[in-house]
Specification:
Layout lengths: L4 E6 L6 H12 L6 E2 L2 H9 L9 H21 L3 E5 L3 H9 L4 H12 L2 H11 L3 E6 L17 H14 L5 E3 L6 H11 L3
Parallel strand pairs: 1-3, 1-4, 2-3, 4-5
């Protein structure tokens, strides 16, 4: 049995991740259990976090662990195609972004990247069966819903790029040049070789 194809859609807040994932799930005809969405919001709600606690490394670790739990669930279900709205990379980016200084950023990154569960996930992220799509900020799409962190969008994007490069993870970017949802769906499906 060949390994599943997994698509992760990542990037700063309010870049259209959930919109793209929903459209992809519909286009591919994914069963409900093969599409993972809103993990961070669920963790925040269940554990009493908010966008005002985004700087807590414990919050980011809890979100990361929730992604690993979802990964394990999907591994057990053997879906041939899986779709994730965000990834375990995102909490590391936010831990770095909200650090008080460079030293704290390095410590937080090291702490989260060196967890045994992230090491296991890293092998998946580097595999040929993994497609990572990073969405760049589209200024007019930024909407404050009271949950998302809309500050430092460009800094967040730079951290994503630097972290992906450091971890040797391949990815594709979508932004202003492809605002139409159908275009984004077609590009993503092409990268996934569907």
């Amino acid at each position: 049995m060949s390994p599943p194809t997994t698509i992760y859609v990542i990037g700063p807040s309010s870049t259209g991740k959930t919109t793209l994932c929903t459209a992809l799930a519909q286009k591919i005809g994914l069963p409900e259990g093969a599409f993972v969405s809103e993990v961070a919001r669920t963790v925040m709600r269940e554990k009493g976090y908010s966008r005002h606690t985004i700087d807590q490394v414990q919050m980011q670790q809890d979100i990361m662990e929730a992604y690993f739990a979802k990964e394990n669930e999907l591994d057990a279900r053997n879906h041939p195609i899986r779709l994730f709205d965000r990834s375990a990379i995102d909490p590391i980016v936010y831990a770095i972004l909200t650090s008080k200084n460079d030293e704290e950023a390095r410590e937080r990154k090291k702490f989260l990247v060196e967890t045994p569960t992230f090491t296991k996930a890293l092998a998946k992220y580097r595999s040929n069966n993994c497609i990572i799509i990073m969405l760049k900020t589209v200024e007019e799409w930024l909407v404050d819903d009271g949950v998302r962190s809309l500050e430092k969008q460009e800094d967040c994007l730079k951290i994503f790029r630097a972290l992906l490069k450091e971890l040797n993870i391949s990815y594709h970017e979508l932004g202003e040049e492809s605002k139409f949802l159908q275009e984004r769906v077609i590009l993503t499906l092409g990268w996934a070789r569907f």
